[in-house]
Design a protein that fits this description.
Number of helices: 23
CATH topology of the largest domain: TIM Barrel
Strand content: 5-15%
Strand order of the largest sheet: 1-10-7-6-5-4-3-2
Low-confidence stretches: 1-16, 313-318
Radius of gyration: 29 Å
Number of strands: 18
Distance between the termini: 81 Å
Mean pLDDT: 91
Shape: elongated
Helix content: 40-55%
Structural class: alpha/beta
CATH architecture of the largest domain: Alpha-Beta Barrel
CATH class of the largest domain: Alpha Beta
Largest sheet: 8 strands, parallel
Length: 624
């Protein structure tokens, strides 16, 4: 059964005696698990930049010694050093071709250490570290990734598979399904959850446990993120009639002299372990910051204790309050008036001379724009914060749509800005991936891209339900009106449509497109998008000159100008170019409004006077 290439026949459907022993033991005895591996390795001088899992192969004695210390401290369940030994995480270290070797060796080291002790070996499997959307974009088959790792651990002879530090219930259910398709050995499923008792997207922890129980998980529980006190509170959400495991961190870490320090003492952990057992925990160990001494205190505290049928009242996590924190009306409600809804893009300025910008915004609004959309450092070129611009324009009575780029902010910063928007009563947002920083005027800046635009749409949609990405309650609902983008100029239109479908599924309420420059493309776009039952705003950009038309066509991503328009604009400059550009834009706008009840007008290089004429022309046509 053991094969370091991971190609041995796995005992599918067979339950080893030791597996049955585990379930019998955890049903009659409170078991002591082991503690941290990663933080202990760093404490002993291993650089945080190393791949800890690869140490199973290059420095096996280091890992074996830690297993031996935890066993000597009293652990009866030890974890393999394989938490991140999957293809996605190992690829970062150039080790994606060594998954079977590393996992098999991790299982062997733990088995050899546990030999003769009566301890059980749990194959440690962590989340992949990427979202479903990122996996799709990168062509990664998440099921196959889990199959490779779990299969190698089973070939290595683990007694139990321990899924830990998961926050996405669907990813955990997928991993559990993979394990069950291989082998019916017991599965321990642990979530990482904070005191909110909610997982990302707002799913209640108790509901997530019920999903795992329905999928035949043998043990459920929590690990990481929280210290002992919060872990004890989270136990109230545990379902009855299924063993529960608790592996908390050694408190909250703080950074000191180049390393993270955890302050919860072994004595404190021992006291907490007894409380865990008294409240129904069957398996108790430690996560980040815990050491063999912490485990020794746990083992002493739970020695000879039996699992208790603790009272676990049904915990109802209160939904987010229905009260809205903004009074701004939805732009989409204006469709009921029967007149076209005009959105006009007017980028924030590149400097602090705001007089002209504010005058332009006022002129566009008075000309008939229903809202101004404010780009977020578009093309990676520095501009004033669009949130600040939006606040200024709101004070002038002008409604705005704020672009929000994934390029410049991490997950914390994106949500922080969204909360700031809501606090100022700004509801309308257009999530974007954003052009890479290196293509703009600050090529030395870093691009963040914690999430994609689709993932950001889903996060904002969850915020509308009252929850942050981590599941924290917002107390009030922001009621964001969420837009998304579509590029009718794309060569692969099927891929664009597929991506649009995912954006709408994630929670987008309306669509804004890249600009079209002729009536033929406007009509084709209408035909392509007619199946979608959401408001669609087709973009129109009034050209200023032949030189600008060539620049946009050849140098600006996402923009394609047809030959007939390039020919019409050729050699035209100054007022002649503006006049011809406006003529083409008005003609294109008429074609769009024959199919759609709204339109998106883009101001060229802050020439609001040009767009003002176009707004008046479009509004005049609708009034006639």
């Amino acid at each position: 059964m053991e094969n370091r290439d991971g190609k041995a026949n796995r005992a599918r459907g067979a339950r080893h005696a030791v597996s049955a022993d585990f379930l019998e033991t955890i049903g009659s005895t409170v078991l002591c698990g082991d503690g941290a591996m990663g933080t202990l390795l760093m404490e002993r001088g291993v650089s945080s930049s190393r791949c800890f899992e690869e140490l199973c192969v290059s420095e096996p004695s280091l890992i074996s010694d830690i297993h031996a210390e935890y066993l000597a401290a009293g652990a009866r369940v030890i974890e393999t050093n394989s938490f991140g030994a999957n293809a996605v995480r190992l690829e970062r270290y150039g080790l994606a071709g060594r998954i079977n070797e590393i996992n098999w060796q991790a299982a062997q080291l733990a088995k050899q250490a546990a030999k003769g002790t009566g301890a059980f070996v749990a194959g440690s499997v962590g989340p992949l570290g990427i979202s479903e959307e990122e996996a799709r974009l990168r062509g990664i088959d998440r099921k196959a990734v889990f199959q490779e790792q779990i299969g190698a651990l089973l070939d290595g002879g683990v007694n139990v598979v321990l899924f830990q530090t998961f926050s996405d219930v669907e990813e955990l259910l997928l991993a559990l399904y993979v394990k069950q398709s291989f082998h019916h050995c017991p599965a321990i499923c642990l979530f990482a959850c904070d005191a909110s008792a909610r997982l990302p997207g707002g799913l209640a922890l108790g509901d997530a446990f019920l999903k795992l129980r329905a999928a035949d998980a043998d043990v459920v529980g929590i690990n990481c993120v929280s210290g002992p006190q919060t872990a004890l509170q989270l136990m109230r959400h545990a379902p009855a009639n299924i063993p529960f495991a608790v592996y908390p961190n050694a408190g909250r870490p703080h950074y000191h002299e180049g390393r993270y320090v955890y302050d919860a003492s072994p004595e404190y952990f021992g006291e907490a372990a007894r409380k865990f057992a008294e409240h129904g925990a069957s398996l108790i160990g430690g996560c980040c910051g815990t050491t063999p001494e912490h485990i020794r205190r746990i083992a002493e505290a739970v020695e000879d204790m039996r699992p208790v049928e603790a009272e676990r009242p049904t915990i109802t996590v209160q939904p987010a309050a229905a009260e809205s924190c903004t009074s701004e009306p939805s732009l989409l409600d204006r469709f009921s008036s029967g007149r076209p809804v005009i959105i006009t893009e007017f980028d924030p300025p590149k400097n602090l001379d705001l007089e002209k910008y504010l005058a332009g915004a006022r002129a566009l609004s008075e000309a008939g724009s229903d809202a101004l959309t404010l780009a977020d450092n578009s093309l990676a070129i520095l501009r004033m914060s669009n949130l600040a611009a939006g606040i200024l324009l709101r004070e002038m009575g002008i409604q705005t749509i704020l672009h929000l780029s994934c390029r410049d902010r991490n997950l914390l910063g994106l949500q922080s800005d969204l909360l700031g928007m809501a606090a100022h009563g700004l509801r309308h947002v257009l999530p974007l991936t954003g052009d890479p920083a290196k293509v703009g005027d600050h090529p030395g800046a870093s691009s963040v891209y914690d999430v994609t635009s689709i993932e950001l749409i889903r996060i904002i949609s969850d915020m509308n339900k009252g929850f942050t990405q981590s599941g924290g309650a917002l107390k009030k609902n922001p009621e964001f009106v969420i837009g998304c983008t579509f590029n009718p100029n794309a060569r692969n239109l099927d891929a664009q449509i597929s991506r649009l479908e995912r954006k709408l599924e994630a929670g987008a309420h309306y669509v804004m497109t890249q600009p079209v420059f002729d009536t033929a493309l406007a009509c084709r776009t209408a035909e392509v998008l007619k199946r979608f039952s959401v408001p669609i705003f087709i973009g129109v950009w009034p050209l200023l000159s032949g030189r600008q038309a060539r620049f946009l066509h050849h140098e600006v991503p996402g923009i394609s100008i047809p030959d007939n328009v390039l020919s019409s604009m050729a050699d035209l400059e100054g007022e002649a170019g503006v006049a011809e550009g406006l003529r083409i834009a008005e003609e294109t706008s008429r074609a769009i409004l024959d199919h759609f009840p709204g339109i998106y007008l883009i101001t060229p290089f802050l020439r609001f006077d040009v767009t003002e004429k176009l707004v008046r022309a479009v509004r005049g046509r609708s009034a006639s």
